[in-house]
Amino acid sequence: MAKTNDAAESHYDASGIQVLKGLEAVRKRPGMYIGSTSARGLHHLVYEVIDNSIDEALAGYCDNIQCTIHADDSITVVDNGRGIPVDMHPTEHLPGVELALTVLHAGGKFDKNSYKVSGGLHGVGVSVVNALSESLKVWIKLDGKEHYMDFVRGDTTTKLKVLGKANPKESGTTIWFKPDHEIFTELHYDYATLQSRLRELSFLNKGVKITLKDERAGEEKEETFHAKGGLREFVQFLNQNRKALHNEILYADADKDDIGIEIALQYNDGYNETMFSFVNNINTHEGGTHLTGFKSALTSVINKHLDKANIAKKDKELRLSGDDVREGLTAVLSVKVKEPQFEGQTKTKLGNSEVETAVKTYVNEWLAEYLEEHPRVGNIVIEKALAAARAREAARKARDLTRKKSALDVGNLPGKLADCSLSDPALCELYLVEGDSAGGSAKQGRDRMFQAILPLRGKILNVERARIDKILSNEEIRTIITAIGSGIGEEDFSIEQARYHKIIIMTDADVDGAHIRTLLLTFFFRQMPQLIESGFIYIAQPPLYRVAKGKEEYYAFDEAQREEISARLGGADGKANVNIQRYKGLGEMNPEQLWKTTMDPATRTILKVGIDDAAQAHSLFECLMGDEVEPRRAFIEANAKFVSNLDI
Fold it and tell me: 381: which DSSP letter?
């Protein structure tokens, strides 16, 4: 993306910054502005600064962004945009840069002339980064001069000054900051987390070069993300562990009714739909009008193409559903909207009705024309959708067996489910337990009031390699679906019908247990992702060891804890008379032990399963659980050195 030099368009000074006062609340309640003071919030600081540079790219004034993690986990972000304004604001009587960095809700994003499209959701931006940093420094190249300011915990320490001359042909902003140890519980940046977001931003902003560099001892690395093909390369990345059904990635990039629309899609031989949607670079996890318009147009175009196709009459009589036409589809939709209206709990669901109309109209025209001109691709898509439709018909009976009339109707619950007596889903827990033996202990040790137990026999089907009809014919999976009660699939799933708001996977601490846990997570991720997104899926953490001496007993969750307890109990005698029991399975614990260590809410440890990066999760599941062997072998070879526990 070349930098724009149009003088009329590039007019950007302090008068374009509008002010909504108040910064002091940020340090008092940082979670309100960055989500948390743990690792997630720490990384959010980088995203806020990067997003400012990306907004310059969206406006056409920046094509190079560099992010560096320094040895002390401080961060530098450099861009070649216009540079934050340094002239005096007409009403606030402060330089534009000081205003942007010290006043909440002050920035060019509130002025329609400075940024036509902005990626910032709340407009808090770099002022929040400044408030939550023990130190922040900014350098600005503008109008042939280099300007400088620095701050401590949001307060100005050095007024704006000119350091010297700069190349008049160069402009841009450099921000260095060090997160405040008084605010954050975690101060170490994860390279992979930043890598994933910067890679995604490069896909979404065609032609912008983004460099990530790590200078920390033993972790030195550097890579550049530069997606000249935009979303084409995003789809290629998502499909890297799949066999594509057609080589060409269908791609469109256009403006419709003053809305920028970019789409890329490709079908693979898998059975899962992988779709990501973005508005102004914001990942709209909950979808919205843009995604609704795309899905509606896709289903309509494929059905019209089916009517024209040279296929058997019985197949023509099939009406393809949305699920049918999206089986094996990998697609990314990105729209640029001047004034997006967000809805939903996480403010990541687009609500603009005009965007649905624009996307639907454009995709109808573009996709119909493409399939007419590329009959081979059209036939591949039709055959894929028809196979899905036939499987859907075959799965109807199996699906009916998993449906419940209502959340209160327990008449058709599976026989091996030991249900709880409470009926309020918010208070109820379902334990998915490996094996009948552990299931028996769990049933005896549980609190029957709110804890339900569902024993699972053996390993469930790997849903990554199966179509819906085969999935629903699997007895164990059917039992899980029936017990939860929410249904599966986009058209049948209802989160309101879920009978439990905690679904806890409890398996043995060995290779088989890890495999069963992975199969269950694959099932939930592919068929019931809403349960994960709603925070309903958990993983139990049973102890590995029981360490006892006399009447004293303790439980250890790893080797280090076992050694510490053993040394403490052994005292002057060393480890004499200390009894150590290694639990090979949950079934070795009696009901009282299982309750005390793994099921009692007052003492247990459970891990909530989340999806921080859906694209990365998608690729990992495809790599580890899919049909292709080579990506899995490469992953194992690359990560074998990190294995700490291996059963032989």
Answer: H
CA angle 401, 508, 413 (to 5 degrees): 20
Question: Hey, what are 331's tokens?
Answer: 């697609």
Answer for the pair 489, 409: CB distance below 8 angstroms, yes or no.
no
How high is the pLDDT of residue 400?
59
Return the closest-CA partner of residue 114 out of 12, 15, 4. Answer: 12
Share of residues in the chain with pLDDT > 70 (%): 84
Catalytic residue list: 434, 508, 510, 512
Listed residue (511, 516, 385, 501) closest to 459, CA to CA: 516
Q: Measure the CA–CA gap between 17 and 89, rounded to whole angstroms.
A: 8
SS3 540: strand
What are 177-218's pLDDT values in tens digits? 999 999 999 999 999 999 999 999 999 999 999 999 999 999
**Residue-range domains of the chain with CATH:** 14-225 (3.30.565.10), 231-398 (3.30.230.10), 403-542+607-611 (3.40.50.670)
Q: What average pLDDT does this structure show over 630-634? A: 70
Q: Per-residue pLDDT averaged across 70-94, rounded?
A: 93
**In Å, what is the CA distance from 158 to each residue of 85, 152, 271?**
17, 10, 59
Q: In Å, how far from its chain's centre is CA 387? A: 30
Among the ranges given (29-38, 43-52, 213-222, 223-232), the one the predictor scored with the smallest mean pLDDT: 29-38
**Closest residue by Cα to residue 463 from 382, 395, 533:** 395
Handedness of CA 212, 213, 216, 217 (dihedral sign): positive
